[in-house]
Records
---
Amino acid sequence: GMGRLMFDAIFRRDYQLLLGIYFLMAVLISIAMIITDILIAILDPRIRIT
């Protein structure tokens, strides 16, 4: 998977691949955090979206 690909890229010094993997991970984490914030705002009546 991605872990093995990243591990191999480190030892091959494939910096472009590592940068792509880090960027993809950052985008996926950001999307997950946005979705989580929206769901919490919908499910918790104490929180208002301003």
---
Amino acid sequence: MLDEIDKLGMDFRGDPSSALLEVLDPEQNNTFADHYLEVDFDLSKVMFIATANYQDPIPPALKDRMEILNFSGYIEDEKVQIAKKHLVPKQMDENALAKTDVKIDDSGIKELISSYTREAGVRNLEREIANVFRKVARDKIEKKSKKININKKKVNDYLGAPRFFSDLAEGQTKPGVVTGLAWTAAGGDILFVESSKMNGKGNLTLTGQLGRCNERICFSCAHFRSFKFGEFWNR
């Protein structure tokens, strides 16, 4: 199992992706040489399973040696059920809390999901549930609190201001601002794209991590404007 292969690092100590190229190549891995142990291994009969949160960081040469299987992330309702049936009981046991000590309702779980985590899985959700229950355990000792009901407001009290917000599309468009659609590992989202007027230099410059789709949109827009306005590139 090669877990989170998209987080491969590369520095002065070496490039692990180069070694993986040889490991995953069926033409070479029957005589794979471990240079640290100075031992040869036959890996031709080994089935490798790699996991990744994102495909883009994986080197293209390494990705070519893989068969990609895409799994969709959990939707909110699925996360709620996973939290209720598995994460909450687990964290109650780890923090020495009984059912008579604390109860977290659906509004509290949904607040944790939407305002304090932004992920396809539930790893960070479990961490935030653990944070809440640790503070509940502290209140039980310091304040001699009886059964504590965790709702949306109580989650905000324990964890502070929400870290994530769900934007709403404007009912009326504003000059220089358009609403775009985005896809992330956490699901669909909207984003606001703002533009500003600058003096042109006769060329097109792309900065940041636009991605191929956004690059094509920029080129198409610039191409259209250059036909409609002859002096577009000089504006």
---
Amino acid sequence: MNHQPVCAACSVHAARLVFDWLEKAYRDGNDLEAREKMAEASIVAGVAFSHPRTTGSHACSFPLTNLYGMPHGEACAFTLDYFIRFNAEHADGDGRITALARDCGFDSPAAMADAVHGMKNRMGMRTNFPC
């Protein structure tokens, strides 16, 4: 794991922007402020994973897109809540996942995973197979 504090700070900033603005941008494509914030989230997230690389959720997105035609962003979100739960239980020895959840305003990684799942439902994203 190539953890870097700058990348971690960018992860928190990008995640906060997504939690605050994604549904607004989804509901109203003419909301320029929401679209600007999501563009910022995209750029900052790119910086966040430029050194440590991406994780399981992103890796799983490629077959979902290539085999099932799922848009890339939806494919990344498809497994995100499950990976949050799995990683919090099995790979949070240093507390970074718990810290990310708290920095994003959640009491726990499980609460953050629930929020991701809720966002997917509210935006009509697929949450199970068949796609």
